[in-house]
Specification:
alpha/beta, 8 helices, 33% helix, elongated
Length: 252
């Protein structure tokens, strides 16, 4: 009877909400370079488009999110080595490597690139010929295959900077002679974050040079199939309810 009583207590414990141990999902965050998709404050406070979507997916008691924050190159090395079990981050088919091997059924966002110039320079982008003899400002670590031929030939000068503040300073100091190439979402987010006047900049579409593409949630290639099915189901529900659009609107 004592053994039966113990078994009944164990079953009750496991079936009682909040008492059973939640399964851990390992979420990988790029440190300081992925805003507004991933925003972290000293690796403790997490937000951003991708992060908020992941948090919404696992908003119940069934799973716990364990955050792992690293510089981009370090994160990729860790994930290529296997990473923690059932890891999640974000990626795109065009990015290759672990950020393209196993993606969610549906995309979470469409990436568009922009060309940012100072309004005082009165520069109108009309194809790459209009950039001949000018400087293109790029953040360190971000390379664009579409620009390499123009940079290699010397038609366009490459200007590398460490951060967004420096990028905006360059285009302000050299109006009409330089243009900053970056994702539209990051441009808008960082102008706001730095309290810069958006009306002082021209933000022109650059999709003719760098085509738009979609980003997805990227999964551990050995992810538990039932977990991946759960994530894709929740993602479809969030899309249908409009919650993903609400999340995106918070940052852009």
């Amino acid at each position: 009877m004592k053994d039966l009583y113990k078994i009944l207590l164990l079953i009750t414990f496991l079936l009682t909400p909040g008492l059973a141990t939640a399964e851990t999902v390992n979420y990988y965050v790029i440190s300081k370079q992925a805003q507004p998709f991933q925003i972290e404050d000293n690796a403790n406070n997490h937000s951003g488009i991708v992060t908020d979507i992941v948090q919404a997916i696992f908003s119940g008691d069934r799973y716990d999110i364990s955050y792992h924050t690293y510089p981009f190159n370090r994160m990729i090395s860790i994930l290529e080595a296997g990473g923690e079990k059932n890891w999640i981050t974000y990626g795109s088919p065009s990015w290759g490597s672990v950020q393209a091997e196993n993606l969610s059924d549906m995309p979470i966002y469409t990436v568009k690139h922009a060309l940012v110039t100072s309004k005082t320079g009165h520069f109108k982008f009309d194809g790459m010929n209009s950039l001949k003899g000018k400087g293109v400002v790029l953040l360190h670590g971000f390379d664009y295959p579409q620009l390499i031929p123009y940079i290699s030939s010397g038609d366009v000068e490459e200007i590398r900077v460490k951060n967004y503040r420096s990028a905006f300073k360059v285009v302000n100091r050299t109006p009409g002679d330089t243009a900053f190439v970056e994702m539209s979402s990051r441009v808008k987010y960082n102008l706001g974050k730095l309290n810069l006047d958006k009306n002082k900049y021209d933000i022109q579409a650059f999709s003719d040079v760098i085509p738009d593409y979609k980003i997805y949630l990227a999964f551990d290639k050995n992810m538990d199939p039932s977990l991946q099915k759960f994530i894709n189901k929740r993602l479809a529900e969030l899309k249908k309810s409009g919650e993903i659009d609400v999340i995106i609107s918070k940052y852009i």
